[in-house]
Amino acid sequence: MTYKDFSAEEIDAVMQEAWDAFHLYRKFSLKQRAAFMKAIAVELENCGDALIHTAMSETNLPEARLRGERARTIFQLNSYADACEKADWLAASIDTAIPDKVPPKPDIRKMLVPLGPVVVFGASNFPFAYSTAGGDTASAFAAGCPVIVKAHPAHAQTSEIVANAIISAAEKCDMPKGIFAHVHGAGFEVGKALVMHPHTKAVGFTGSYTGGKQLFDWGNQRKEPIPVFAEMGSVNPVFLMPEKLTASANEIATMYAGSITLGVGQFCTNPGIIIGVESEALQTFVHDLGKAIQKTAPAVMLHEGIAAAYKKNKDNALLQDDVHLVAESETSAAAETPSSVTNPDGGFAGLPTIATATGQALLNNPVLHQEVFGPYAIIIRCKDMAEMIEVAKNLEGQLTSTLMATENDIINNDTLVEAVKNICGRFILNSVPTGVEVCLSMQHGGPFPASTDARFGSVGADGIKRFARPIAFQNWSNNLLPDELKDENPLNIWRTVNNELTRAAVL
Amino acid sequence: MTYKDFSAEEIDAVMQEAWDAFHLYRKFSLKQRAAFMKAIAVELENCGDALIHTAMSETNLPEARLRGERARTIFQLNSYADACEKADWLAASIDTAIPDKVPPKPDIRKMLVPLGPVVVFGASNFPFAYSTAGGDTASAFAAGCPVIVKAHPAHAQTSEIVANAIISAAEKCDMPKGIFAHVHGAGFEVGKALVMHPHTKAVGFTGSYTGGKQLFDWGNQRKEPIPVFAEMGSVNPVFLMPEKLTASANEIATMYAGSITLGVGQFCTNPGIIIGVESEALQTFVHDLGKAIQKTAPAVMLHEGIAAAYKKNKDNALLQDDVHLVAESETSAAAETPSSVTNPDGGFAGLPTIATATGQALLNNPVLHQEVFGPYAIIIRCKDMAEMIEVAKNLEGQLTSTLMATENDIINNDTLVEAVKNICGRFILNSVPTGVEVCLSMQHGGPFPASTDARFGSVGADGIKRFARPIAFQNWSNNLLPDELKDENPLNIWRTVNNELTRAAVL
Q1: Chain A residues with CB-CB distance to B477 below 8 A
Q2: Residue B347, pLDDT score
Q3: Distance of CA B478 to the CA centre of its chain
Q4: pTM score of the predicted model
Q5: From B156's CA, which of A117, A249, B235, B240 has a CA 20 to 30 Å away?
Q6: Pick the CATH number of A238-429 from 3.30.43.10, 3.30.70.100, 3.40.309.10, 3.30.300.30
Q7: Which residues have CB under 8 Å from B71's CB, separation 6+?
Q8: CA distances (Å), A115 to each of A145, A146, A201, B238, in order?
């Protein structure tokens, strides 16, 4: 099923409705926003098997994964709704007047208010959790913003079903017309028109560097620049520290064979670069990982474009100076053609592959720093710890970095540990980067180019803050203030009153 | 006294030192950072009269104002130091592991860490509070970032004295070499080189739209874009609501004559547009404000460039269609020449001036929306409340908006109130926008073009968050975590543990 691209006029009409809705929705209470989000979760559940089957046919993702992802999306909606109502994110703050100070200190009270209509671009690899009713949409609704979703063309029909679930929830909750819109557009013009529209006040995106950076540039080139939060993936470096590697080369290899090939490597947290120091233990690791990869069957990727890009980028990496193939899945290369896979719509399989190169090769060649989206990793063999530190310092910003390390490894290698910490949003010890827990303490984002603003993240309720801004009320009488800032604290929320966190009323 | 512009090589050396210092300073405890900031406050006090006299000669600002501003700067350093150590801004958050969840939930803990070296551009109109050791510098030090100040050429010698105070404090506190640098540059090349340098990770600026927007664009055009927080001033609209105006036209006129001319109008919070509905009360207000302005003597502006720009922008506004002069200071126009003022260095006086125009004229003419930096305001006469709402909806983003209103005015004009609230960072009732209280609940920033990112502000300890980013630690053992995130909460800070704010240890 294909959908017609929205015209400039249709986009303008959508944005005008969103703008009108904004003026109504931002006055809705936190409780009303939360109820709306929870209603969307219910509708998403009510979509039943039809939604799963549509997503399976559009994305080649397996049923269990999609059921799990829908459950996660429902959890996100419900947990961000709870966070919305709890209002810690509002950062409510009150400084009471001191009339006899010179000059007199006025009463000042601050809280976050919504930015305005938010345009959300869904991800190809997460048709539910990072798409139409995903984390960006939930965060924007919680913040008090209408949402305009640009459907991902690779799963436009899935997106349409989810959009209808949102619209149904909006109707049941008496939301204003324009609170949500669903826009189709396979060409870049639709995306550009949405980002450039004067009524758009923020953008959320998950996807490629090229796509995210373009949206970011458009957002900044507007007459009125707007924040564009683009999560653009990364290579998620893994540092194998000497003592740990010596003790556990085989276990680490097994663990990482699983992480590299999980979901056919189609995660922005996929470990793409694994760094160790030349040693017998590293050779064991390379050998064991290679063996495990050989035994991992190729699986169908999301769509033809992703599979073709994977093959091209992987082949290009393997062509670079000093890069050597370690192993690939023993299922023959023919698996990379559609005829070899069972998917009746003709998906393309991604061949699990491991390469290797020296630390110097990585330091010399920017191509090796680039993400190869799929079941691929390159093992970097450093000549010593000093070179490993150089590598850490020369890597770009990352969503995650991982240390495989004993306590001694960490205590004895402070410079390395600090360098690795400085480039990432999430810092993992003795585990794998794949799997992004949805909770307040999660950080999904990182220094550029992992995301366009390291100060925010797109998973967990703190993501709400991307779409809100502080406003200070000065000298307002109590009855005219929003409930969040009234003396008596009718919502019983946490507030900082004269520099102290409290739920108490202002006396 | 003039200073030579830094060369590209000198800037590179400065930034390399800052980068090296960053790796050391970010590991300093909150207590150490706070002690350093408090030591700067002491050194600033120790600069004594010499600093005040230098600032007087460079800025034409009166002694009492400068003494007050230094006291405020010292208060900022001390209060942000307290906030730094208290660590609420760190947003420490802990989600403990749930091993028997499917899949298992890992232990995840999050806190803010510093971005890296911050370049600060001081303001011409605040040689202390928004300059070398001002709010941006204090915020960056609190966040854990080294600071590079580009001295404002209009008070370069004052800046040099303050820089030496910071350097002296840094030495006394054993801060790493490179924690602070002071760079001179009258041309734009120095500023550009600082913003574009790869080791620069954020920028703070207070000043004109032209200057701030240029820095913002440079920051976004880098290979690795960085956040540029520019506070660029605004016209700070004041809405005179009917019932309030009828009751208090004369008092409001007196209050605003003072606010418009305070500090020769050289505040970014100066009220530049005052909006009312045609009525007898509005005529009274215009008349009374005009009379009060006639009686206000011109005073010397910061420097020749500011005075010339004021005259040019004011004259240009008065030349626009349907704009009429209401009143100007009765001291003759000769006061705008240096010969008429007492300052021996030859300052230029700014002539207090009030103009008026219709609501339609403002709606039609973008020139009238622009800030005229100096003791000038235009009174906008709307034909009815509907036109006042149109005006509110058509104004750009503002640092502040003010309502002069009774409770009835507010209750009966919800659309207007919401429109006014939506464009500002600080929303004032029945007071004046000049005077920015330094406290946590202050918001000094606002929707573009008031600032480049409405989600942050530059006054109050929340300004620290501009220069920090969250990092999540996953699966770390307790003894390897930073103190802020250890189970036992050794710093006794507020943290969100499993979604609940608490100071308790994790059991």
Answers
A1: 407, 429
A2: 54
A3: 40
A4: 0.96
A5: B235
A6: 3.40.309.10
A7: none
A8: 7, 10, 6, 22
